């Protein structure tokens, strides 16, 4: 996300991921999946050091979904059935509160540290996503066995030393 074009491309990827996952909104988890989608990016490389990849995070999201549904007595016997009846929404998915909050937190970081953080917008967005203490991303990270505070510390360190 060195410039606006890269940022727009990242948001387009997040929207495509949300649509692919039959979501009416782009949420923080879709932003994280978009950041992880380019395995050669700084963010994906940093998170891979903690074994967090698009595949492992997607699996963690599935575990979180299953855990949450089990909490209300619903068990999915065949996960393929979830994809069998995809929801159709007109147009592109809109941004949810969790995505907007992550983007806002990233924006605050960029404005606080003018200059070198602008070149690290992807890392600022990662910090914005991982800073959330509540929501699907933190719960999925727990279900996947990832330490959010450790990931956040690594992202802050990378942000300070671009």
What does this structure look like?
With 162 residues, the protein is mostly helical. It has a single domain, classed as Clp, N-terminal domain (Double Clp-N motif). The protein is built from 9 helices and 2 strands. It has helices spanning 4-20, 28-37, 42-48, 54-71, 80-84, 97-112, 121-130, 136-143, 148-160, and strands at 25-26, 94-95. The longest helix is centred in the middle third of the chain and has 18 residues, at 54-71. The protein is globular and about 50 Å long. Residues 1-67 form the Clp R domain. This is ATP-dependent Clp protease ATP-binding subunit ClpA. It comes from Brooklawnia cerclae.
User: Could you describe the largest sheet, including whether it forms a barrel?
Assistant: 2 strands, parallel
Poorly predicted runs are: none
> CATH fold name, please?
Double Clp-N motif
Instruction: State the helix count.
Output: 9
| Largest sheet, spatial ordering of strands | 1-2
Give the class-level CATH name. Answer: Mainly Alpha
What's the overall geometry?
globular
What is the straight-line distance between the termini? 13 Å
Q: Report helical residue fraction.
A: 55-70%
> How confident is the prediction overall: mean pLDDT?
86
- The CATH superfamily appears as Clp, N-terminal domain
Please report which band the strand proportion falls in: under 5%, 5-15%, 15-25%, 25-35%, 35-45% or over 45%: under 5%
Structural class, from helix and strand content? mainly alpha
State the domain count.
Answer: 1
CATH architecture, please? Orthogonal Bundle
Q: Tally of extended strands?
A: 2
Name the helix and strand elements from N-terminus to C-terminus, one letter apiece: HEHHHHEHHHH
Evaluate the radius of gyration.
16 Å
